[in-house]
Write the structure tokens for this entry.
Amino acid sequence: MRLGLFGGTFNPVHLGHLRSALEVKEGFDLDEVILIPAALPPHKSAGEVVDAADRLHMLRLALDDSPAIRISDVEIKRAGPSYTIDTVYHFKRTLPAESSIFLIVGLDAFLEIDTWKSYDELLRQVPFIIINRPKTGSSTDGFSWKSLEQYLKAKIS
């Protein structure tokens, strides 16, 4: 089984999240994509995000009839901050050993990977699928693969 883990605040969930999940599923021949709303995102303050239970409910409403994408409340059930490394370990423990897990992240989030808990271990544990957002005036507009390579060399390797 090939699974994509797609975490985030989903504050709120929108068509971009859902479309990205479907395109990644198809493009990387994944059996399933699992959306994982963060309970307590470590990079955001409490006032910036809607209550986790409400965001989970919004996701359930948005995905009511989608068999290709499912939702996990693993981070909401776990106490404390929502660290991706903990979530990856959870799925590695609970899925069959022959499963392949991929971590789906937006380019904007990946460009802060060096600030994540145990990011070096995370990079060893799971392959990443990095998605870019459409041009919207964000800080990643015009971001080139050469710039990504430079970031990886400067911050990661």
About this structure: The chain has seven helices and five strands. The longest helix spans residues 15-27.
